[in-house]
Design brief:
The structure holds two protein chains of two kinds. Chain A is mainly α. Helices cover 73% and strands 2% of the residues of chain A. Chain A contains 16 helices and four strands. Chain A starts with 15 loop residues before the first helix and ends in a 6-residue tail after the last helix. Chain B has a two-stranded antiparallel ribbon with strand order 1-2. Chain B starts with a helix and ends in a 14-residue tail after the last helix. By secondary structure, chain B is mostly helical. Chain B has a single domain (2-118, 137-278), classed as ABC transporter involved in vitamin B12 uptake, BtuC (Orthogonal Bundle), CATH 1.10.3470. Chain B is built from eleven helices and two strands; from the N terminus they run H-H-H-H-E-E-H-H-H-H-H-H-H. The chains are: A mainly alpha, B mainly alpha. The interface between A and B is large, with 47 and 42 residues.
Chain lengths: 355, 292
């Protein structure tokens, strides 16, 4: 058996492989295995129905925000259209399952591929544009997709929406929260694994090079346009996959949830979680979804104790708190929760000499 | 032909609204190259400040107008000091997200204080301002809006071209390190440019409020319509913003008139994508030249 690896007291890396390792120590790997064990063996069995519903939503959104992190955090392309791509995935999944009768395990990946195609189309302006102009192009994409979802009534059912029949996988009914939990989180773990490892390949390094200095990247022989499109495709693949899961989970589909606000929430998730940090997208998603739930619970609470006036004033305050959270994170911890987490860990590690 | 003329007039007046609301946006971009996603909320802030002063505190109109301009100017300073100064030198995405966060906060606050209803100013414009010519009628508010818009356009055109502060602003927007090394006080210029942008946005908000009624959600939605306008005209061109506003306004009303109303909502954005593909820096924008 090889020697256990602990934190070295300096930087002794000699090869690129050592630089690229995901787990610096064996404890990291151990904790991750423990975490995954708790995720699958403990959480679904101790949570109430409602908590499980919220956790499931977190899982679905986390897949999508991980995708946005690849585009924004690693490739440096800010997108305000991610919510619409999520919607495209959701509608594609719903339509494939209700109109064409695709089974669950085909329609979800198919929807993801379709969304990746749509993502490529809306990524085409990146051939000439970058920064602000590209951001505005994705914003336009958001509005155009939203319009199509509402107006193409023959396919999407317009404002009435679509009712999706429950999913079954290998003969198991996925209609209840607990079984769907396993599907969502297996997918999440898989997509994170892919995402983290993708960033260690030549593709990931090319993305990072484009983010850091696109002209230098081009000079080093990275075809910018191709890699930007690839980044769009991967990111919308994630969004589409998550969207299709969302469609099967929520079952009734209307175009309303996929508005600009959802796109803003996705961007807020990765900013608060940590740009260019895969676990960060999960932290951010948990934070935003939890914040949303807590705020709407407060509203409900005041509604129930008869203080309707207070409850009504709380609804706009929800928006205010949401904005405040974004602003405070940007000022005090622009690298997000992932950075806070790193600081906490390293202060434990360095105790009693933490600085 | 009657229908066409009517549409044309409607389109022009809608376009003028867009042009007016785009002014403040262009100001910020021109002086600090920040893409302001809180613009609609800034419009609403000005409109509501004027409403509070004129309709509820019963201050005379002219005084209320001046006080609103001073108030938005001061608010611009405060917002810059609290939220934007810590981000000087940070990445683009963080500054953009910051404006987004400020916008959401402002919208929450305004909804909290004033609610989601439509408010209206008391009538104060003299009827003699309205124009009647060969059966086409232009109401007094639009004429007043036009006059205010032209005055602001001239003032700020001259300001950016000739005043030292205006030239500093352009230099900061163009190249921050270079401006710093030439002795431009970048922080002060930043504060000033945000204050001016708030002022212009507040002014446009008042005019929009006079014409359309004041509603938080509607005004913040107009903030997003600004994007096609400024992209068409060029992000940093005030004249371009006016022309872009008129074109987008006409496009929208003609689509609504001849094709369908629902399409008219999205047609500016389709135009936006097409413009971006063909002529990314707009009609009058300054093309960024990249040197390696």
């Amino acid at each position: 058996m090889r020697k256990l690896q602990f934190h070295p007291c300096g930087n002794y890396k000699e090869t690129y492989e050592q630089e690229l390792t995901i787990f610096q120590t064996d404890f990291g790997r151990l904790w991750m295995i423990v975490g995954v064990g708790i995720l699958f063996a403990v959480i679904p069995f101790i949570s109430s129905q409602y908590t499980l519903y919220v956790i499931n939503l977190m899982g679905i959104y986390a897949i999508s925000s991980a995708g946005l992190n690849i585009l924004t955090g690693y490739t440096g392309i800010i997108s305000l259209g991610h919510g619409a791509f999520f919607g495209v995935g959701a509608y594609a999944g719903a339509i494939l399952s209700t109109r064409l009768g695709f089974p669950f395990w085909i329609s979800v990946p198919a929807a993801a591929f379709l969304t990746a195609g749509v993502g490529i189309i809306f990524g085409l302006p990146s051939a000439r544009l970058k920064h602000l102009y590209l951001l505005i192009a994705t914003l336009a994409g958001q509005f155009i997709i939203e319009y199509v979802l509402v107006q193409w009534e023959g396919l999407t059912g317009g404002a009435n929406g679509i009712i999706v029949t429950g999913a079954t996988l290998f003969g198991i009914d996925l209609g209840n929260d607990r079984t769907f939990y396993f599907v969502i989180f297996l997918c999440l773990v898989f997509f994170l694994w892919v995402g983290v490892n993708l960033m260690r390949t030549r593709y990931g390094r090319a993305f990072i090079a484009i983010r850091d200095n696109d002209r230098a990247a081009e000079g080093m022989g990275i075809p910018l346009f191709r890699y930007k499109l690839l980044s769009f495709a991967i990111s919308s693949f994630y969004a589409g996959f998550a969207g299709a899961l969302f469609a099967y989970y929520v079952m009734s589909m209307t175009p309303e949830p996929f508005n600009l606000w959802l796109s803003i929430e996705f961007v807020a998730m990765i900013i608060i979680g940590g740009l260019g940090n895969m676990p960060g997208s999960i932290f951010g998603t948990v934070f935003i979804v939890a914040l949303n739930e807590i705020l709407s619970h407060l509203t409900e609470f005041f509604m129930n104790i008869g203080a309707t006036g207070v409850a009504l004033t709380l609804a706009p305050l929800k928006e205010f708190v949401f904005g405040l959270a974004i602003v405070l994170f940007l000022i005090y911890e622009p690298k997000g929760i992932a950075e806070v987490w790193r600081i906490v860990r390293s202060s434990f590690r360095l105790w009693p000499f933490s600085y | 032909m009657q229908f066409f003329t009517q549409l044309f007039i409607n389109g022009l007046s809608l376009g003028f609204l867009y042009a007016l609301s785009a002014l403040g946006f262009v100001m910020i971009f021109k002086s600090s190259s920040v893409l302001n996603l809180a613009h609609g909320e800034l419009l609403a802030t000005g409109a509501f400040l004027f409403l509070t002063l004129s309709a509820w505190a019963k201050i005379p109109i002219v005084l209320a107008f001046v006080l609103t301009l001073i108030g938005t100017f001061a608010l611009g300073f405060v917002v810059e000091r609290l939220f934007l100064r810590p981000l000087i030198g940070e990445n683009l995405i963080e500054v953009i997200m910051m404006t987004l966060g400020i916008g959401i906060m402002l919208r929450g606050l305004l909804l909290f204080i004033f609610g989601g209803d439509i408010h209206a100013y008391p009538e104060f414009l003299p009827e003699s301002l309205s124009i009647k010519w060969q059966g086409v009628q232009i109401p007094a508010v639009n004429v007043a809006a036009f006059i205010i818009g032209i005055i602001f356009l001239i003032i700020f055109g001259l300001f950016f071209k000739y005043s030292s502060q205006g030239i500093y602003m352009r230099s900061v927007a163009d190249n921050q390190p270079a401006a710093l090394s030439l002795g431009v006080h970048v922080r002060r210029i930043f504060a000033l440019s945000w204050a001016i942008a708030f002022l212009v946005a507040g002014m446009s908000g008042i005019v929009l409020g006079i014409i359309n009624g004041i509603n938080v959600l509607e005004l913040s939605a107009i903030g997003l319509k600004v994007f096609p306008v400024v992209i068409l005209g060029g992000l940093d061109s005030i004249g371009g913003a006016i022309l872009g506003g008129l074109i987008i306004g006409l496009l929208e009303t003609f689509t609504a008139g001849y094709i369908s109303t629902s399409l008219s909502e999205v047609v500016p954005y389709i135009a936006l994508v097409l413009i971006l593909m063909v002529k990314p820096y707009g009609l009058f924008g300054l093309a960024e030249i990249e040197r390696v």
